[in-house]
Structure formats: C-alpha cells, structure tokens
Amino acid sequence: MFFSISVLFLCAIVSGLLVFVIPDLDKKNYKLALVFAGSYLFAITIIHIMPELFSQAENPTSIGLYVLLGFFLQQILEYFTSGAEHGHVHKHEGDHQHGFTASIMVLVAMIIHALLEGSLLAHPSVIHEHHDANSLLVGIVLHKAPAAFALMSIIVCQLKNNKLAIIYLLLFALASPVGMLIGDFYVENSALPDDVFTILFAIVSGNFLHISTTIVFETSENHHFNARKLIVAVFGALIAVGAEYWI
Fold first, then answer.
1. What is the model's pTM?
2. Of residues 22 and 167, which shows the higher confidence score?
3. Phi first, then psi: what are they for 61, rounded to 5°?
4. CB neighbour list of residue 215: distance below 8 Å, 6 or more residues apart
5. Cα separation, 54 vs 52, whole angstroms
C-alpha cells in the first residue's frame, strides 16, 4: 500500500509542478500522450474493473445502472473542472475574486474525483481477484499525470499566485492516497457491506469510461481520427492488456 500511495502522491506533485518548467506544451505530442493514457484507462476499465464487477454482482442490471450513473456524474463534475481530469489545458481570464471562486470549485470537484479513484485501489475481495492490481494503478497514474498538469495550469492562471497554487496541488495530490486509505480502512474493518463497495466501484468505472472516451475522441479536430492517433490508441490498449495479464 505504501508503494501505491507514494506513486499516486508523487505523480500528481511532479506533474503539477511541470507547469512552471514547461509553460508552453507541444500540443501535438501532448495530445498523443493523452490518447495513449485514455486508451490504456479505457482498456483497463473494460478488461479489469467491469468484468469483476459483473461477475460478482447478484443483479448485473443494477450494476449497469450504477455505471451509467457514474458516467453522467463525471459529466456534472466536468462542469466545475473545465475538463482538467482528462488533461484539457485552458487559459482563464477574469477578475481576482471570480478566479478565486472558480479555482475553489475546480479543486473541490477534482478532489471528489481523486477520492473516488483512490478508493478503487482499496481492493476488497468482493471486487478484485488479487490484491496487487498494478495494471489499475498504472492506469490511474497515466490519467492523473495530465490531470495534475491541467489543474495547475488552470489554477495558476486563475489565482495569479504560485504559492497558493502549490498548496492547491498538495491538496489534490493527497486526495487519491486519502481515498485509498479510507477505502482500505472500511475494507479491513468490514465497516460497510460489500454491496456498497460494488456500487462505489461501478460508479467509478462509469467515471473512467467517460474520461477515457472523452480523451480519445476529443483530441481529434472535428473528430477525424487519423492513422497516427489510431496506432497510439491501439498501442495503449495493447499495453493495458499486457499489463493486466503479465504484471
């Protein structure tokens, strides 16, 4: 667990701080990296999370409804995050008060999402066949790195205060480890019924489906998916399959 917590925290911190080192991204290469991450996350959701959810469910239809709920919940969260959780980097202009309020909304929405994805790594036996789901951790990291970078780019632009932006980044970086610790506490102490965790993970898988598909398809102008991006997407999915079966 210590390894997973350290990876989640450092991934967010390092990626977020890169905003100060790489203020201007190479958009083409950045989008290709997002396509790889999105394809990997999508594949892990399809071949790792969802099969285990449905195989353990007494009522698969209800699980499907919770996945659908998670999908649309993510759409609501994106209203507040400006798409930062799937790597969208935006420039925001406006007065200081509006920027402060908007940055709080972005941070809270991102923390909620990070807590949920961190709890997914708690690994209750009712969901995961084996405790060390490293392929899932890799998927979350690949998604979290561009999310942290995008979050910092938004917050720095809104706040015009680098020290405060770093505090926000620390709070975001801590969210997934805290979610994992909370989830693990409830698992180890059997404080919640297994059905609650099943519902929670179904909602998170819906979140991941929304994020990953948005990343893959919104990185193409006018939704024209060119051969280069298709190759990167297929490669990302194949890496996920390999990680699932061999890591």
1. 0.80
2. 167
3. -60, -40
4. 34, 35, 37, 38, 41, 86, 87
5. 6
